[in-house]
Write a structure and sequence with these properties.
The structure is a homodimer of 461-residue chains.
Chain A lengths: L11 E6 L3 H9 L5 E7 L10 H5 L5 H4 L3 H4 L6 E5 L1 E6 L4 E6 L2 E6 L2 E4 L3 E3 L17 H20 L3 H7 L1 E5 L3 H17 L13 E5 L11 H14 L2 E3 L3 E6 L2 E5 L5 E5 L2 E4 L3 E3 L2 H8 L10 E2 L5 E2 L2 E6 L4 E2 L7 H24 L16 E6 L2 E6 L2 E5 H14 L3 H16 L11 H26 L1
Parallel strand pairs in A: 1-2, 1-7, 2-3, 7-19, 9-10, 9-15, 10-11, 17-20
Antiparallel strand pairs in A: 4-5, 5-6, 8-16, 12-13, 13-14, 18-19, 21-22, 22-23
Helix pairs in contact in A: 1-10, 5-6
Chain lengths: 461, 461
């Protein structure tokens, strides 16, 4: 067995939690540092989350936005990638515990960078998740692909007009970038790709509803762009419902409370949740052992150098960190990664030369702007004071996303997938699996069985 | 709602079961026939099964070999595609019953073409399936992709040499084309793509075993080509074990009985089953209602015109049919489809003109040959009396598979994926989901829980 990198046990040990933008970029920026890097993550891939909605709606394959992290870091010999779900950080003993299929592993660190991201938040209603999956992982995207296309298939076989209407109603909760992009893409999938391929239903009659409790679409992008995006969505046929709060979600639909207090019901088989985020539970774990504070969304209130109180060697970056003025987007994570890796590298150098490291400058975020695609050829973008929409914004979106995708071959593959979808009305990735359906059914059966056996047992004792 | 095609209820009704090579080709060949075509299938896609092993080993995406059947048939207005699992054919009443998510649908037919294919056969040991998935569906391929790559990930984290060895041993049962291709690709994945990306294991030390109860590799291709393929596999590092019969499969490995009666054990976490096929249970359904006979593999012994005794309007084609001299391969299904659609079209025309249709000529199979890839740049091929191997055979394999892939854009995408893998050592589709791992773990937990509760219950009564 070869153990390159695993031999240098006396080197400064950097442990990174997470393989998203924050984690991967921290590892990469430490390429030339004289440290030992261990990146521990729950998935084997680096997910390019901004394009997840394109996996869900059949434009690109999961491989294009989720290459294996270890292959990205293959040639970086001071780095190793370990699969595992980090369940605990022990600040006193400076170790991280991760779990893989029932085995627990304890990994010591000198410096720790926590970039475990955020999951979907259902604001205390976790039972919504079963009926309205989020948009945070490859699993979510493939599950939603199956549900969206499956709804059309079921409608085609149904002769009950009520049931058919329910199956052809799609509700996207949350009008942030992901929600806007999902709503637009479900509508385009129905109107363009699926058009003419059914005989008993007309897929263009699908009813897509984008819903938010807030009074605007894309609130962080400002009123002007929000209205622009909303107008474009409405022109495409998406119904935008604002000031509408979701009070319940079940198998058959959702219940909504409007601003005037009216409670109403939308019957819809397929729901997508993109309304809120909840940071990784590791934030709470830190708060229990230190002076660290977390906000309502579970985000860690970091110090100006992105470390936590009393532990200058423990950093939190990306969606898990709360920093005034830094949005929970890729740019925040990437810049945080750059900043902390610089500190780690400088301090490693100082130790090596026996000098005193330069005092840490506080982290400052440079806002490169933000953008969201609404439909084919149409996006909205904001760069500093500049706000623009339409085709130019869409071209900018296209170029920027291509630049940020990891790997030349991925860029070519994605460009080809986009050519297929944007120049024609086709989509190359509409395959759905039986797996989800089967696994879910089996879990439900077994849970019922276990429950009934537990009842019998109780009755017997 | 638009109902094109659904209005002509007085036309001759052709029902096709299955969306594989047989089913899809039958529908397509009836394009110009004055009949009403309903294709009912269990999956929404047409699967190009010969390339399934490339999905399992991360070369291509599922979208490239499994486009939605209804999009392929979109412009064929006399055809409709219905999702459903056909559970029963009623020969007396001329109807087909299909099930979709708990709903049963009854569809009448005038002519019926059954092309429901074959599943994996475990020769009466269906409990092997859990530990050694087959290679018959997109779900199988994605499950195996997760198991293969997951085994390397677990080995990287394990410090127990025994466990590590078990995790890095891969057993492929069945040395037909699929088995040969899987074994070769797992070896190339380890030796080329994954090489250098781990720090605690050397993936090139993975041990791939191809095992068969028969005395030869690729038996239907003849001794010469079998030996050629075997030599090439062995040169790559695959261990070929012949005359070895599997007697048991469990979570940790397999038990094998050699020709001399020796029973031995191979510890291996990841097993692939490609040893035998079992035709769709619909064959038995037909046998129970008619003079139809089925063979041991459940295949229907059809008449010379591919119909069943007493029912000249019911045809069975493809892997479900037993016809002397016709192998269970794509070509058999495609030629069967061409033949039966011609009969249906001729007889429809005769009815229309009030004439007597020409008597049916018996089906005759034209053997176009067969081929299997062993590794990058290496294949074996047999066309008539001509047998050849190596690079030329591989080029022929490449060209033929590209020609048979459905759709121009799919061909371009697949060619690009192949360029990535064959010209470099990369693979573009190595993403694995958490779904399988999670669902399986949960199923196992619940099954254990249910079993222990059942024990308690027994003890109490």
């Amino acid at each position: 067995m070869s153990h390159p990198g695993a031999t240098a046990t006396d080197r400064h040990k950097v442990v990174i939690i997470g393989s998203g933008f924050g984690g991967l970029n921290t590892a990469q920026k430490l390429k030339r540092a004289d440290v030992d890097v261990k990146l521990i993550a729950r998935t084997t891939h680096h997910l390019f989350q901004p394009l997840l909605y394109q996996v869900a709606t059949g434009i690109i394959s999961e491989g294009e936005i989720a290459p294996p992290t270890r292959l990205i870091l293959r040639k970086q010999h001071n780095a190793q990638v370990l699969l595992g779900d980090v369940t605990h950080v022990d600040l006193a003993n400076k170790t991280v515990t991760s779990e893989l299929l029932g085995h627990d592993y304890v990994t010591p660190y000198d410096s720790l960078v926590i970039a475990a991201g955020a999951g979907q938040s259902y604001f205390g209603n976790d039972h919504f998740a079963e009926f309205a999956p989020g948009m945070k992982s490859i699993d979510d995207a493939l599950e939603l692909r199956g549900r969206i296309l499956g709804a059309f298939e079921q409608a085609e076989r149904s002769s009950d007009p009520e049931r058919r209407k329910k199956l052809l109603t799609f509700v996207v909760v949350g009008a942030g970038p992901t929600g806007v992009e999902m709503a637009g893409q479900i509508q385009e999938l129905a109107d363009q790709t699926l058009k003419g391929s059914f005989r008993h239903i007309d897929p263009t009659e699908a009813h897509v509803i984008l819903l938010d409790a807030a009074p605007a679409v894309l609130p962080p992008m400002g009123k002007k762009l929000g209205l622009k995006a909303q107008a474009r969505l409405e022109k495409m046929g998406v119904e935008v419902q604002l000031n509408a709060m979701v009070t319940d979600v079940d198998r058959n639909g959702i219940t909504v409370k409007d601003a005037d207090g009216t409670i109403r019901r939308i019957e819809a088989a397929c729901k997508v949740w993109s309304a809120g985020v909840q940071a990784s539970p590791l934030g709470r774990d830190l708060a229990e052992q230190s002076e660290t504070e977390i906000d309502r969304a579970g985000r860690v209130k970091v110090l100006p150098d992105l470390s936590i109180p009393g532990h200058p060697n423990v950093f939190v970056i990306g969606d898990m960190a709360y920093v005034e003025g830094v949005p929970g987007m890729a740019q925040g994570a990437i810049q945080g990664a750059k900043y902390v890796s610089k500190i780690i590298q400088n301090e490693a150098k100082a130790r090596e030369h026996g000098t005193i490291p330069k005092p840490r400058e506080p982290f400052s975020y440079f806002d490169k702007g933000s953008m969201a695609t609404v439909s084919k050829y149409n996006a909205v973008a904001q760069v500093g004071k500049l706000e623009f929409g339409g085709f130019i914004a869409w071209l900018a979106w296209l170029g920027l996303h291509l630049i940020y995708l990891v790997g030349f071959k991925t860029k070519v593959a994605t460009l080809l997938s986009w050519a297929v979808t944007f120049l024609s009305r086709e989509r190359g990735q509409l395959t759905i699996t039986e797996q989800q359906a089967y696994a879910r059914t089996r879990i439900e059966q077994l849970e019922d069985m276990a429950a009934s056996l537990r009842e019998t047992e109780k009755a017997a004792s």
